[in-house]
Amino acid sequence: MQTHRLFDVLFSMNPLPKELTNEANRKELINYINSKIGFSHHTHRQLLLNPGQIADHLYFVENGMARGYYDDELKEKEYTICLWDEQTIITEPQSFLKRTPSQLYIEVMPGSRLLSISRQQLSDLIDAFPYAEIFIRCLMLQYVSYHTKRTHDLISLSAWERYLDLLQKHPKIEQKISKEIIASYLGITPQSLSRLIKDNGHP
Fold first, then answer.
1. For each of the chain's 203 residues, which pLDDT tens digit applies?
2. Gap between the Cα atoms of 28 and 176, Å rounded
3. Whether domain 8-156 has CATH 2.60.120.10
4. Which residues pair with 136 in a beta bridge?
5. Which residue ranges does the record assign to the Cyclic nucleotide-binding domain (predicted)?
6. φ, ψ for residue 97 (rounded to 5)?
7. What's the pTM?
8. Handedness of CA 119, 63, 85, 189 (dihedral sign)
């Protein structure tokens, strides 16, 4: 039976559906998911979703990183609003759940390995194993928690404090994404980020 870190994430949910406290049920669910799940390895930056498309897949980051961003063509500026590191689930939730066109780009970084499952496969999974709605619960809890903290940090922390928090949360992030993307996520220019590092010293 092949296992992935995805199952560590799902089975760490609290409270866990009582069915999943049973080892036989876990094995049956794992075997079913393994028969449906897709794998992809990305050697270069690649878009998983474009504005106007409907998000039709959930992705799980086994290795690497991805980001979600908006592109302001008039200002020629990108706004990175999400960074997904290892052991996180990627999608645009509103588009995925409500079948509405996305306004977000989702881009995977080089060296990333993703697991994926389509919306139809997820629906079939939940029909076969109703307690597998844990997928949706995991997605929504992750999304709400992430954006609640993200909003708080943008309001309450300085750019330098946000940078320190980012490095603490993702220690190897500078090996995975460019300084331009990091600056975009912090809400500052790359030049401002360079000045902050010069003034404060690299952490």
1. 566 888 888 888 878 888 988 999 999 999 999 999 999 999 999 999 999 999 999 999 999 999 999 998 777 789 999 999 999 999 998 999 899 999 999 999 999 999 999 999 999 999 999 988 887 887 788 788 888 888 899 899 999 999 999 999 988 899 999 999 999 999 999 999 999 999 998 87
2. 35
3. yes
4. none
5. 20-126
6. -85, -35
7. 0.89
8. negative
